[in-house]
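Convert to structure. Protein one:
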Amino acid sequence: MSRLGALLATTALVASAALIGSQSASAAPACRVDYTIGSQWPGGFTAAAVVTNLGDPVNGWHLSWTFPGDERVTQSWNGSHTQSGARVTAVNATWNGAIATGASVSFGFNASSGSRSTPPTAFSLNGTACTGAPATTTTTTTTTTTPAPGRPMIENNHPVTREGAYGDNRFTVFRPSSPQSIDRPLPVLAFGNGACAHTNNSEVTRILTFVASKGFVVVNTGSADGSPNGVPSGSPIPSLLTDAITWAEREHTRSGAALHQRLDLTRVATAGHSCGGLEALVAAQDRRVSAAASLNSGFFADGAFGYPRSELGKLHTPALFMDGGSSDVAYANNQANHDLATVPSVLARHPQAGHVGFITGSQLVDGMTTVVQFLDMVLNDNQTAREYVLSPSGLASKPPWVTANKNF
């Protein structure tokens, strides 16, 4: 089931389509839960519950629901979980227990299921049923309509600012220049460079500017001016990409930051080229990540760089595997990785791109368009992007592209 389909299936939980803009401190308990199934495959699925607090501030939370079938939570993130029969209770982590009035917190998990999972029908937060109705107050509240899924991100063309990451010269940030003017929070992409270049990112400046112009905040390894930053190059360091996500989390809460409260940290992806693609696939095992894109890369059969193909079994998110055809040194690896992946995955091949055509060649726009459309499909459940990626009339109909997909 798609993210949008899951949301539609849970409309009974959402009695109000408005977000509370301001509330009295005397508001009664109230909450809304948006439950989404991000991806589903035979025997399992990935899901998330976003809890919006419509009442008094909460300091410490537990969210409970009952599955309608045989679903069993196997892994969780942004908190812990217990399950007794079909009843599940999620409890906050040490760092996300506070939910201010009007604020949201998310809890995600993987689960097994003997059949196609359907959304639960009721949730409770700290014992209060989440009906979606705002709390009753003695003051007037202001409301704003929740924005519906918009046009595909590929149609955006925002001016882009490239700058060093605040307080951490290991990273360069590519972002829309005026994030406050964009009508919804921005998804985050952590990107690893070819050759595992951890100082100089000049080779990927064009492609990451393109991606950022579509409405992403991209955090890339390497200092903005190419100066030494204490990180060696040449071998995968996947923790750099997870550190990039952590940096984005801090920047989201830093007062005065251009990105203050402008990031959507429930929609985070990793991607990378060549050696950086290995970094992206390993970093995608982090539970904060919801999508991965491997460009001209893949785990080697002999476990080169210390990462065997068994790493693919640790993925929990949909993945895109792109290569440049038989002249691409990563061609066989990319194909094998797609074949071995157990998560929903897309294979996209441009036979004329070779190993660097998506990065510096004439296939740059085609390649990055595919990346943006894939991320828009997975992170935002944009149906136009989904048609582009998965439909026979989409990318598959654009010669000389060759595509395949599974588990969607």
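Protein two, convert as well:
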Amino acid sequence: MGPSDTDRFREFVQKLQQEDERVAALNDIKNLLTFKPAGESAQVIRNVGITKILQCVNLPEKSQVDLTCEVLRLCFEKLAAGDAVKNYTSHIMYLLRHEKECVRKLAIDEVYKTVVSTPDALPVPQYVDVFVAVAHLVADENVGISNKAVLITSNLPAPAYPKILDEMKIALDLGSSSKCNAYEVVTNISAKSPELLALSYEHGYIEHMLTELSSNDVLYQLNILELLSRLAIKPHGINFLVEQRALDKIAENIVGIKDNAFAPLLLPGYMKFFGCIAHLYPQEIFQKYPVLLNTLWETFNSGDLNLLPVALDTLGFIGTTIEGKLSLAATGCKFTQTVQKTGELMRASTTDLKIRALHCMSNLIGYDKDPTARNGPIDHRVTLMTREWFRSLSTTPESTQMLHEICKNPFPEISEAAYTLLDAVTQHRWGEELVARTPGFIEYLLDRSTGQSKEIKEVKFGIIRRLSVSAAFEPSVVEKLTAYVQKGPFYSEHSLEVAMEEGE
């Protein structure tokens, strides 16, 4: 922009003070900046300033306020990343605290853009007041604004948090939504380090969250449990919660939950919470909090269709690791009975439960999801246990025949889940041998007309590639498996014919 453009910009800004020319002036500024390079626009904006434009956010007519926000957003976009906050800090502070939603949204979008694009652009000592103003917005009624505030406040430099945590307490005197937003920020901060977790505790947030679990608001309780589980999966988080007897308090809630009218809604949340922790620390959790396992076994025995999906997911998640499998097996007959129940659900239940049961068993039997099991021989105990678990899934027909039939299921979601279990089974030598002995199973796998979805083709290819190097099959079968692998997962005779015709 040349000097004439600067003069025009100044002229338009001056006209903003005249009521009858205000809308036209805002549009003139918008048109002037829209098609000009950012560098030239930025120089003019800096020369003239934005104070008089910003004053228009206080106009009574919504359409004029919206237009003003549009012009200010355009001004900010023309500046280099972070310059709007750094050069117009007091203006941004004013906008963050404004009574109108669109104005607050404009300001927080700019702060968010700055923090995300240039995380070190706003040193804490100079801009801590901006961060505090943003922290207040975690309680904003506008979900878009509060969500941005949560994201920003959760990702600040550590020196900002003593002030942030102190100022954000205002949210705890508001509604459940505002408190949950504050708790989410606290959880995200606390998960970063033991020191920040201790700081959150000193400010009373953790104790407040635990106390609020006695609320009559079911959704509120579930949100708190979800946040606490995020903290509990951190090594310093679980240690802290154990030291503060927080897990004891939560376990006590489960004991008394049966008498709660909202038990069907609350139990899934509590199962997920302890399931997340037991996934990482199965032996410790089973020993100290047997109520988790008792609740899990009771859910399977009850046959409650509302609770079984979460119970299956929880059981499978705990049993994904080698330690989880061994810890579950150590519980004895109740676990064995639960495996048998899972087999029943695989054979005869709703589509959703069949799929979850199949995935549950694939986690219990497979070991490839445990990083500790990939670099060495599998624990002999796991080999024996998983073989027995699989055999107990069905007696008539045998489990492998049953799995073969489920793989043929016309519903792709069920068939895909069955292939996932088959993949887990063939991770063991005993599984390879069972497939080899089951009439028609290997022929079915080699038939490229079965399992047409991309996901099934990929899983099936992985299974066949594993079986192609197995000693469980005759050389003639290995030859067929190897040929399948060489052609890839998506080969078809039809595509070959098309390619040949195009070559001719």
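Residues 263-280 form the longest helix (18 residues). Confidence is low (pLDDT under 50) at residues 496-502.
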